[in-house]
Amino acid sequence: MSSIPADGLRVVPLGGLGEIGRNMMVFETRDDIVVVDAGILFPSEEMHGIDYIIQDVTYLLERREKLRAYLITHGHEDHIGALPHLLPDLPAPIYASRLAQGLIGVKLRNANIRGIEQIQVTEDTVVDCGSITAEYFPVAHSIPDAMGIALRTPAGIVIHTGDFKIDHTPVMSVPTDLNRLALYGEEGVQLLCSDSTYADTPGHTESELSVGEALEHVMLTAPGRVIIATFASQIARVQQIVDGAEHAGRTVFPTGRSMVQNVKMARELNYIQSPAGVIRDIGQHENFPDEDVVIVCTGGQGEPMSALARMSMGDHRDVRIKSGDTVVMSSNPIPGNESAVNRTIDNLFRVGAEVRYAQGGAANVHVRGHAAQEELKTVLGLVKPRHFIPVHGEHRHLAAHVKLAQAMGVAPENTHLLRDGAVFELTPRGGAVVDEASAAYVFVDGMSVGDVDHTVLRDRQHLATDGVVVVVVTVDHETGAVVADPDVVSRGFTGLDESPALRDRTAEALHEMLARDSHPVEAAALHEIVKDEISRFLYRETRQRPMVLPVVVEV
């Protein structure tokens, strides 16, 4: 890769373009690197067993001596969730607002990561990172203390909006600072990187204020317990729930590890305020009449191990859904999670709950945290960037945002529809993609990070859809001769599970095959012969392709 010009800046998205989540952008000059956000991506349904996905940071590892700082825009998982995985190999100071630092601190303590400098920022903070200077400014989002960042670089001013919307009545926050954006626009902005999550949605996004009114109405009118599912990092939403519960004469019981930890942290930092006794431990909720109970939990995205999903399946330790409960899904499904969310909703209805959710017509139980088209055009009009890169969204969102930018006067040749891994070089003379970095998915599966690859996922999908047949063959370890009848065991394969006759025929076919091969073969070769023969036999008999696992036992 060629060297960076003295007046140049490289912009390298390692996640967040063409997907909802995994947000991370690298800004690199000849001598310095800053990273804006480091989030996770939630897995799709076919990624069996995967907890979440993080970035391939090979590009950074090769330049680690230049890394000066992590600049965090806000505390949502898709912006901070990868930090515990990156910091051991890529340590650097973390600059973030007070609430985001609190949420990051919970993660670092859980991961037993120490020695990382955390610096709290405000709307007036200026961070000196060598040849890059970062200036924070406030934006409205669905979490308090969200920030945008202006970077002063050798190539000119770069604005990164973070996630934002234009909300004139935000909850626990301040409106997006349009005056600051206009001042940067007057000074001259070389590049705007702007949130694209709802760039294909006309109009404006509703205010967060309407959500609190809707949730309070539910708590005032519901006949029994109210169970509200939202993200654990939605601290402002939790405060709205607490306020509504107080007015309705109810008590709030958080449940779910991340929800309990974040509520505790937010109360310690005074982001969540409540009179004594309004928030209690979930273990006490059965001591209260149902009509006085509000349970706040995770699970609005249908996550299989979340508190709400466990409630819907009847295996939550403290809460069992029953007739008379009202469940509120106070979130919109992340693209790709729709079927998981719908499955959770169906399960809740099945066990007798009344479910309120935005897609089902429940008014204002959730509003978007991202700008729609008119708000995006307002920012483009104020900033007047020379170059434009849409960020944070699937490809259709990025493409729609490019069209908006061109409609607002950005030259078509200066609108850059990038994908993860593109190495975009910007100078005062222009900008272009000059190389490509690895931006592959790194899968997190329990304690395993990066050990699961697409081959493993393919095998898991095969097992999930077709089942497995285990064929046990016993041979003499000296001669290689078969010394016992083969055994056939299946799991999840309907052909053998439901037909003892087919199981017998499979064993007979295997026995005949082994009898034909009168010359003993090595165990490895026998393994492949058995696998191929039984796979072909089962397909002829059933037109199904289970995973065949031969086990050769030497005695």
Give an overview of the whole structure.
With 555 residues, this protein is of the alpha/beta class. 31% of the residues lie in helices and 23% in strands. It has 16 helices and 25 strands. The protein has an eight-stranded mixed sheet with strand order 7-6-5-3-2-1-19-20. A hairpin with a 4-residue loop joins strand 2 (24-28) and strand 3. Helix 6 (209-221) runs parallel beside helix 7, helix 9 crosses helix 10 and helix 15 (500-516) crosses helix 16 (523-542). It is globular. The N and C termini lie far apart (57 Å).
In short, what is this structure?
The chain has 16 helices and 25 strands.
Would you spell out the secondary-structure blueprint of this structure?
Elements: E1 9-15, E2 24-28, E3 33-36, E4 52-55, H1 58-61, E5 67-71, H2 77-80, H3 83-86, E6 94-96, H4 98-110, E7 118-120, E8 126-129, E9 132-138, E10 147-153, E11 156-160, H5 178-187, E12 189-195, H6 209-221, E13 226-229, H7 235-248, E14 251-254, H8 257-268, E15 293-297, H9 307-313, E16 326-329, H10 338-350, E17 354-357, H11 373-383, E18 387-391, H12 395-407, E19 422-427, E20 430-436, E21 441-445, E22 448-449, H13 454-466, E23 468-475, E24 487-491, H14 494-497, H15 500-516, H16 523-542, E25 547-554
Parallel strand pairs: 3-5, 5-6, 6-7, 11-12, 12-18, 13-15, 13-16, 14-15, 16-17, 23-25
Antiparallel strand pairs: 1-2, 1-19, 2-3, 4-21, 8-9, 9-10, 10-11, 19-20, 21-22, 23-24
Helix pairs in contact: 4-8, 6-7, 9-10, 15-16
